[in-house]
Each structure stands twice: as structure tokens, then as C-alpha cells.
Design brief:
about 60 residues, 1 helix, 3 strands, about 20% helix, globular
Amino acid sequence: MPATIRFTGDDKDLTLDELTKFVKAARQAGVPGDNPVRAGLSTSGKIQQVEVLLDDDRS
């Protein structure tokens, strides 16, 4: 299973500050900038979790 960085919102939905922390952690881990980000959304369209593979994700 590929290694990932995954963030979830403390109060169910991610805030802009939490999303900023996710991006910072991914950059520090060396994730390529063009690597796709996957997100889980609520039924109202709010982001509940985000994740990115640590290596190049072309699939």
C-alpha cells in the first residue's frame, strides 16, 4: 500500500487553516507539486478529508 499524507477536520469539516497545514506537510515531505490531491466531501460539498500519495501519483 502506498504511503500517504491524510488530514481530516477536527470538527468534521476541514478549515482553511487545516488545509494550509496539509499543504505544508505535503511540501515538507517532498510530494511533487503536480501530484493529484484526493478529497472526501460531505453531502453538502464541504471537504472532510484530503490525502496525497508521497510519491508521484499518475494513476
